[in-house]
Request: fold
Amino acid sequence: MFFRFLLALVLVLAALWGGGALYYRAPLPGFANIALIAGFVGVLLVSAALLLRRRRQGAALLASLAALGALGLWYGTIRPSDTLNWAPDVARRSLVHIDGDVIRVRNLRNFDWQGENHGIARWEERTYALSQLQTLDIFLSYWSGPTIAHLITSFGFADDRQLAFSTEIRKQVGQDYDPLAGFFRSYTLALIAAEESDVIKVRTNKRGEDVFRYRLDLKPETVRLLFADYAALTQKLEAQPEFYNTILDNCSMVPFRMVRLRDPKAIPFDWRILTVGALPEYLLEQGFLDPSTPREGLRERARITPKAIAAEQAPNFSAAIRAP
Reply:
């Protein structure tokens, strides 16, 4: 009985996932797609019911396997594209190369944002010295309540320059973000290298998000290793686009996997990595923030939103948001 119940549960879950995949990705027009979804889900749910009632179990298994096999064959044909009509802010991919001590960044985004989603496009090329790379900050931008935030990493150099990276979806023109669609190969992954006056200021000053900055307690050698991983990822995405996934390949899981690949024991998995909003407390517990940092008032001290708004016209936005 337990095995039949478990198998029926698997079929129900497969029906939900497969229905979502067909809803978001099937190329059929309106009614035809609805009929396809109803047929697929119906086959699996009826099969699950027959298994629980111990009726026509062989036919139920064959029907469900055929439906799942057809879905798997179709879903496997969906590949990430690199030639769609991309939104301006992700129209180019950032590419980072390290040659000895020289860091070369191509397509660094430095937009002059005029509104929430539009601005004067500026894609630039920069060089930095790897030996001057010293610090790593993370910014958490809260866009949906106190627990859901977007994570941005920012590398600091001895010459007071910052280089930020934001893991984002590569949207097409007119396409909106849907977290459910993100489970079904609806977006490709974009790793954007940017100035903080672009990627941070647009969130605080144009989109009304609340942003917090935390300095990680890492040695410069560790910071440089992590930067090399970011550079490698830009090259990997340049060679072969990848899909964004709402859970597996998002703004927090991408850097989490980088650290885990370096040292699987360095940072144990925790639910706060997924929600991002509660990440500071977790990082403090794991020793990634200054261990002398008092937990009380941590969030208030990290909030940079008022400074960012006041620094709208500041010549050095990064310095302004770090001022005491």
Q: What stands out?
A: The first strand starts at residue 95 and ends at 99. The radius of gyration is 23 Å. Residues 91 and 170 are 8 Å apart (CA to CA). The chain has a mean pLDDT of 91.
